[in-house]
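hey m, so remember when u said the tokens were messed up on ur end? i reran from scratch. heres the input so u can diff it against urs
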Amino acid sequence: MVYQFYPDIEYSDEVNGTVLSQVLNSFVTKYSRELSKIYHEKSADFYRPEAKIGLDRDNFYTELCAFIPDIQPMRRGTKIEVDLFIQYPISMLDDSVMFLFQNLSDIEEIGTDFYSKECYKFVGGTVKRNEFVAEVNQLLERNHLNYYLDNNGTFSRKVSDDFNELLDLPVPAVEAGIDNLIQDSKKLICSYEEGNRKLGLEKIIDAFQRTKSLYAQSQGNVSESVNKLINNVAEGHEQFHSFVNSIMTSITSIANNAEIRHTEVYQDALQSEKQRDYLFQVTLLTINLLLTGYNETEVTNETSI
């Protein structure tokens, strides 16, 4: 079995107008009653004060445009006029999907009112939200967009199964600062926004740098700390010691010369998501190895005292 550290489809930070229109118009029409909990028309029937009869589209789209200001120029009354032939930021799709998801509720039909209009009341949100999630994910897959919506309404990028398993791999807790950086990096690397993914890589590199200093009493002792960390895992094996040292040296070098930190700019910045994903995974695995060795060594030392 070959380890696959990247997905089959490259990521795009844009989405075509057809997909966006499907969400903003077709989905709003399909789920109009389920979207009307806050933005609803009430029955004029005096005997059914709780009954809802449909979505107040004008109010709904007003709130949508307030939530996503970039959509306002495309609004035409109770419809969003999307240019089907141009590309839009993926963030616009994410925000639109999130707005719909948050406003979805399950309904229960309660007959018709005096004016023969179908009436309903709201009874929750799980069923329709799950249906909506499935439909959004089908839309994304059909259009070869490497993203997905989870059952909590979070929009994320897809990563390979192997990458997911690595992200789920528990990392030994040694120092709160390192642990927090690792946890933050795992969340950010799965973001649909490229800027967040780059920040995720930056944080895992920062976690690596802090791991290197676990035994250092000062900045001048970092090399001694690194050597001790490698000794923990090499267990006297010279070639493995050299192997781990070369990996750590390479990570340090690329971290200092490939525009990893957002405050640094170099000509030889990483060029693709595959490169960033690969570096992230190698760094995370190396941290895991070093922290495991650190924990095992320190526990042994404490026991022998």
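this time it looks ok to me. The mean pLDDT is 87. if urs says something different then somethings off w ur setup not the seq
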